[in-house]
Design a protein that fits this description.
45% of the residues lie in helices and 18% in strands. The chain is of the alpha/beta class. Strands 1, 2, 3, 4, 5, 6, 7, 8 and 9 form a nine-stranded mixed sheet that branches. The longest helix is centred in the N-terminal third of the chain and has 28 residues. It is globular.
């Protein structure tokens, strides 16, 4: 019986090994089995899209895999988020999102996901300050002039969408300065064109779409929302220089897998993304757009999210911002 028991045990061991083998091979082979879909939460031309597209070739070079950008805009990024949440956790579907990922669960009555439970954070990508700009046809050249005009005349401003940090940064300014400026939400890629075309007098956006227009003289920069000036626009004041304290608002970008994705794949992709963002050409490209990044682990990003989600929930509550 003892001999039979040993045979049975060996047989069961082989069966378990056969069952585990395909999964182990798939994890080891990632990302070469099929194209990796980078599902971008916003449309083409948005800052999130720019980040994803700048990294795809470098990721291919580093891993030997194929990375394809799929834009899935809508509902402030919630459509893409829901799609990736439901995807197989095999490493071949990635969510590329902005700080809106951390904001939406408190902004929408039902965003459809839990930011800390339904996804595996892979890496915190680059970040950029937000910036307030004005149409040159409006007699506003500085942030104090904006505040003074808003107290006397009706103004409106374009943002990158309801609940984005660009929207919430302006709402914070309105609360502190005791002014009222009408919000006109746009898709991220079109908020800048709205103010350039004169559809709104003011815009609040991330820096990447604004910088080319500022350098071309089509927009007047008023202030960046970080606590210090941006090296990309050193002549543009920080909002804190005008006495508005506790401002250090950024638009950041991150990469996520569906919950349940094997840690070995998470770590492998984290390493590749860190290497990609540290290459001179990517660092320079991001710097030209007003973005900066630093090496971080999946655990670092999770810890960052654990602070960001409640931070923006508090801002949403105090501003009264809502999205349907």
């Amino acid at each position: 019986m003892a001999g039979l028991s040993t045979v049975v045990k060996n047989f069961l061991f082989v069966l378990v090994g056969v069952a585990v083998l395909p999964s182990a091979i798939a994890q080891t082979d990632w990302p070469k089995a099929k194209p990796v879909s980078l599902v971008v939460a916003f449309g083409p031309g948005a800052s999130t899209d720019i980040v994803a597209r700048n990294l795809t070739q470098r990721l291919t070079d580093l891993t030997g895999g194929t990375f394809v950008v799929e834009n899935k805009g809508g509902a402030g990024g919630n459509i893409a988020t829901g799609q990736v949440k439901r995807a197989a956790p095999d490493g071949y579907t990635v969510l590329v999102h902005s700080v809106a990922f951390a904001v939406n669960p408190s902004l929408y009555p039902n965003a459809g996901y839990d930011a800390l439970k339904d996804f595996v954070p892979i890496i915190l990508g680059p970040k950029t300050p937000n910036i307030f700009t004005a149409n040159p046809g409006v007699s506003i050249k500085t942030l104090p002039e904006l505040v003074e005009m808003a107290k006397k005349s009706p103004l409106n401003y374009a943002s990158s969408g309801i609940g984005t940090t660009t929207h919430l940064s302006m709402e914070r300014l309105k609360t502190i300065a005791k002014i009222d400026i009408v919000h006109a939400p746009y898709q991220p890629a079109t908020a800048i064109t709205a103010v350039v075309a004169g559809h709104t007098q003011i815009a609040t956006t991330s820096m990447p779409p604004a910088v080319p227009m500022i350098k071309a003289g089509k927009l007047i920069p008023l202030a960046v929302t970080s606590s210090k000036r941006s090296p990309l626009l050193p002549d543009v004041p920080s909002i804190t220089e005008f006495g508005y304290k506790d401002f250090d608002d950024y638009t950041w970008f991150g990469f996520f897998f569906p919950a349940g994705t094997p840690q070995v794949i998470v770590d492998k992709f984290n390493t590749a993304l860190n290497q990609a963002m540290e290459t001179p050409e990517i660092t320079e490209r991001f710097a030209q757009l007003g973005m900066s990044s630093s090496s971080n682990s999946a655990a670092d990003f999770r810890k960052f999210l654990q602070a960001e989600v409640p931070k923006w929930a508090a801002v949403v509550k105090s501003s009264g911002a809502k999205a349907e």
